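Moderator note: this is an archived Q&A kept for reference. The question asked for a predicted structure of one protein chain; the sequence and the answer are reproduced below.
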Amino acid sequence: MIYRHIVTDLAIESANEKGFGSLADKKTLSYGVEKRSIWIKNSDQAKKIGRDMGKYITFDAGGDVYSDKAAENYLAKQIATEIKNLVGITKRSSPVLVAGLGNRLIVSDSLGTRCVEKLHVTRDLNSSSLQSVCALSTGVSGMTGMQSAEIIGGVVSKIKPCAVILVDSLATSMAKRLGRSFQISSAGIAPGSGVGLDKERIDKSTLGVPTISIGVPMMLALRTAIYSFIKDYASKQDGAIDEFSLRERLKEESLSNLVVAPKGVDFLVEKASLVVVHAIELAFGINL
């Protein structure tokens, strides 16, 4: 069994961990926002990095982004632009389906459902001047008895959308990214993969239409946090660590499967959901 050093849903973190960080294009934008783009073009790169083929764009916002409305709006506009670029041209009469994944009863996993609750849906308006948008929350299989992929696949076959937007909480390997990094990807999503759960993928190959995922990290694997901290600390002290012994000790102390969330996670989920909803509404012109 291969013991993964880090647990993350962010492609940029996987690329950095595997030594392929140079593949990412980095740009510093206004309001301290940093944009990192990585395009995994073939199966060989996908295997080495540990991510599926596709485009991944990550926006890292500053720690004070949520105290500045102008910064929030700017961030939402940047995300909206990437959503439009990845989805391509849509037909107003053909709906865009926004699916919120996760568990509403667990704060750190409630981003998707909170976004659906805030989103302006327009499919029922029958307006020729607005993009048709509809939304659903899939819940979790422990409550519904169905996988998110099954629910979304069934809805897609019935309403035949022109695109699907997936929104979910993610896992990160860096505490500073909690609640303040936004990943947009054309590769779809595998719910729960970041924290070791193996679920059926939801992407263009399974749904037949452009499938874009939007995620914000709200969880951090404890063993990842400890491992990263010790490794970083040792490097700054010109010290060496026995990585094998460290990993084994983490397992012995039963820390390998613990997932933690920041103290202010409710605030972060609420603010991040507002940014994501604003971005989706800007992308499809339904910011009513």
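Archived answer notes: The chain has a mean pLDDT of 87.
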